[in-house]
Amino acid sequence: MPGPRSIQYRLTLLFFAITLTAFAGIYLYVVPQLETNLREQKLRDLSDSARLTWLSSTFEPIARTRSPEYRRAESLRSRSFCSRRLVSSCGTT
Fold first, then answer.
1. How many beta carbons lie within 10 A of that of residue 70, not counting itself?
2. Which residues contact 8 (CB under 8 A, 6 or more apart)?
């Protein structure tokens, strides 16, 4: 194994120092940008979720009353109520 004063040892040390500096520079440049982008994305998602929650709570009753399933159920409920009234008015239970 070469000693600390050999050219091979110095070149190896220089290579690892340059590589370490490059990785550190890339890390310090990229990671803050990723954190910022992630924070902005979370805020956007939260805003979209809040908007959708508000819209669904505002328009859900309107949409529900206009759906065919709701109309069928309402029709069946009213027919059921009328038939119960008719049967009870005849004295039969």
1. 13
2. 2
The answer to whether residues 93 and 87 touch, using CB atoms and an 8 Å cutoff, is: yes
Query: Position 20: which residue type?
Result: L
Q: How far is CA 88 from the centre of its chain?
A: 53
- Give the whole-angstrom CA distance, residue 20 versus residue 14: 10
- The pLDDT assigned to 22 comes to 96
User: How far apart, in whole angstroms, are the C-alpha atoms of residue 53 and residue 63?
Assistant: 14
Domain ranges of the chain: 7-89
For residue 4, give the amino acid letter.
P
pLDDT reported for residue 24: 95
Query: How large is the angle between the packed helices 7-66 and 68-89, nearest 10 degrees?
Result: 40
- Residue 54 is predicted with a pLDDT of 72
Residues of the chain short of pLDDT 50, as ranges, are: 93
Cβ distance 9 to 3 under 8 Å? yes
